[in-house]
Amino acid sequence: MRTSYGYDTYRGRTKLQTALTVLIVILLVVLLLAVAAFFFLQRYMVYTDDGQARLELPFLQQETPAPPAPTQNQPLVIVTAEPAATPTPEPTPAPAELPAIAPVSLFRAAVTEGSAQRLVTAAGGNAALLNMKANDGSLGYVSSLPRAVSAGTSAAEPELNGQILAVTGSELYTIARVSCFKDNLAPKMDNSLAIKTNSGYNWRDGDDTRWMNPTVPAARQYVTEICVELADMGFDEILLDGSGWPTTGNLNYIKVGEAYDPSNLTGAVETFYWEVREALGEKDVLLSISVEAGELNGASALSGQTAGLLGQYADRVYVLGAETVGACDEVLAAAGLTGNAVIYVDPTASDLSTTGKLVAAVG
What we know:
Layout: H1 15-42, E1 45-47, E2 53-55, E3 103-106, H2 109-112, H3 116-122, E4 127-133, H4 146-151, H5 160-168, E5 173-179, H6 186-189, H7 217-232, E6 237-241, H8 266-280, E7 286-292, H9 293-297, H10 307-313, E8 316-320, H11 326-334, E9 342-344
Parallel strand pairs: 3-4, 4-5, 5-6, 6-7, 7-8, 8-9
Antiparallel strand pairs: 1-2
Helix pairs in contact: 7-8
């Protein structure tokens, strides 16, 4: 008698198991093909404006048939399009003549006491020149710039800006004078802004005043932001004073290198002028620049300013230290600065920080 010793007899797979296995394999193949087709066709999926999707298969697109090649008996006809009419350019309008002004430099009290118009008229002028950034770096208004606040250069009187707005909002023509790089306070608080000596100290000019370095982007940005604030306060004109390199004092003490290259003093100056112009943009304000007469007649070339730069970036130029105007007039006229675009500062004034007098022209 046979026994299985605990094992069942193997009877092989049933027909049902085989059919199920084949079906599963077919389903897996179909699923893989579907996934592959999805990723393949996804690149040809296009969505219409109403959010519906459609396929644009390249082999279903209609190609524009190429024109039949001319036979030997058919003449080749070349069709040319009519040339587009070239529009006649509008003539560039001549720049408007600047207003003739006779500025009078005023003390801050003229603003706080409301006497600006009376003092300008009494001095024989028709415009007020207000010192909004002094040579020591202090500001003649309350600034919201973080650097002005941290350096303590902003004015502290909370009512001062309102008093300035009363002047700029009147009929009186107003000019904001900005001592650009001659600044004793900002480099003191942040040495990275300063022109340096060979020994690494902050360089000082003949007035014992520090200067910011025009090659330092943060220094240029600080002055540019001040100009924007003043433009937003309604000044008719912003006057950049000391906007180049220093020309007095022990210049040979300045450390020569990338931060001060005597062979290329104009580069940083032009960058600064361009940045101010860009920042002011479409604001309704004139941009004026002061220059020493010696920089125009060739007697010295230390500031990095040139007549060409002034003609390119300045609406008006204030010429300092000119005993006679003939030579300067000729140079400025060649740069496109004539008439009311040029003001000759009273040669007895040391600079435009002098207050309480008419900024007179010399004849």
